[in-house]
Amino acid sequence: MIGDGFDTDTDTGTEHERGVSVAVTHVLTIGITTILIAMLLTSGATLLESETERSAESSLETIGERLADEIENVDRMAHGDTHSVRVTTEHPGTVANSRYTVELLGSDDCEDDDAPLLDGSTECLRLTADEIERPVYVPVVVETDIGDEGPVNGGTIEIVYDGNSGEELELKEVSR
Q: Count of domains in the chain?
């Protein structure tokens, strides 16, 4: 009989159930669903990672611009009759759960492939985070020479101009 769920083997005359096709369909459905869910989770994690990196870069740019403005203010104060200026600034210690460093560079060190807007004619800040592949550069316009201090950790930073010893601007890390 056709359509009754049984196949008859014409050689032996025995009947076989077609119930195997239901099990195969279930296995294939579960397998395909598992693969689709795994792909969805992987792409979601990749999207989250790229958004975190963009957020960290944006945060570093904002911190760099604020710090550059504060450095320029210290530079203006240093051109008066002032012998020394110390300004302590508060910035976040981390961006996107990553520590970062800030370095004040002279104009010769500010020409870099990662800094297309800098042509080496102005000083800059280089902000580097642990979890971000490339540093962020922010221009700083100052008339005072830049000291050769190394990078300082983000957080509380002291901007120092000491007219008695070299007349240079420097960044110093404040430990708290």
A: 1
